[in-house]
Design a protein that fits this description.
The protein has about 190 residues and is mainly alpha-helical. The chain contains 9 helices and 3 strands; from the N terminus they run αααββαβααααα. It has a 3-stranded mixed beta sheet with strand order 2-1-3. Helix 1 (about 5-10) crosses helix 6 and helix 2 packs across helix 6 (about 125-140). The radius of gyration is 19 Å and the shape is globular. It starts with a helix and ends with a helix.
Length: about 190
């Protein structure tokens, strides 16, 4: 089942209640969420291999309490990611062999609509809950797709700039993570 289908069969008042339940801070932005919900109903979905999953996340030492988030999965294993070599995990570790999860907040909304929702999410949450979680995640960078795309392009430009640096430029302009951590721990 794709997100576009869930949005087409879900009533706004039910989504509004779910947003208020899970995200009380969203109440001030109800009109923005409503406008986005109805905008999504008019968009044509773009097919994608990414699958949506709503899951509970808790990172000890970082998070005060568990929270729900929407992530994407497309069958890629963590060990197949370009930056896996920097993680420090063995190629045959459970992490390496686990399916990679992707942040989706910068994805185009039409692509969100074309994403399949995983079976575990469908079994655990009602359609209005899933739509509310997706609305929350997809608008976390704003309610204007053009502005979100501009943010994504700016981030990509920074990544491209880093990728284009020589080793000498990296040593000259970048601070190694261990030095940053030491500075803040002091």
């Amino acid at each position: 089942m794709h997100l576009s289908y869930l949005i087409s069969v879900t009533e706004w008042p039910d989504v509004e209640r779910a947003l208020a339940h899970y995200y009380p801070d969203a109440c001030d932005l109800t009109e923005d969420y409503r406008d986005t919900f109805f905008h999504l109903q008019r968009l044509e979905p773009i097919a994608t291999t990414m699958c949506l999953s709503v899951r509970t996340t808790f990172r000890p030492g970082i998070d005060e309490e568990p929270f729900l988030e929407v992530v994407g999965r497309n069958g890629t294993l963590n060990r197949d990611l370009e930056d896996f070599k920097y993680i420090g995990k063995a190629e045959d570790s459970s992490y390496a062999l686990s399916e990679a999860e992707f942040a989706l907040e910068f994805e185009r909304w039409a692509e969100w609509l074309g994403m399949e929702i995983d079976a575990e999410t469908l079994a655990k949450y009602s359609p209005p809950d899933i739509v509310a979680h997706c609305l929350w995640e997809m608008t976390s960078c704003g309610f204007d797709e053009t502005a979100i795309e501009a943010q994504r392009a700016e981030i990509q430009s920074s990544v491209d700039e880093l990728d284009a640096m020589t080793e000498e430029e990296r040593k000259e302009k970048l601070i190694p993570l261990d030095q940053v951590v030491r500075k803040f721990d002091a």
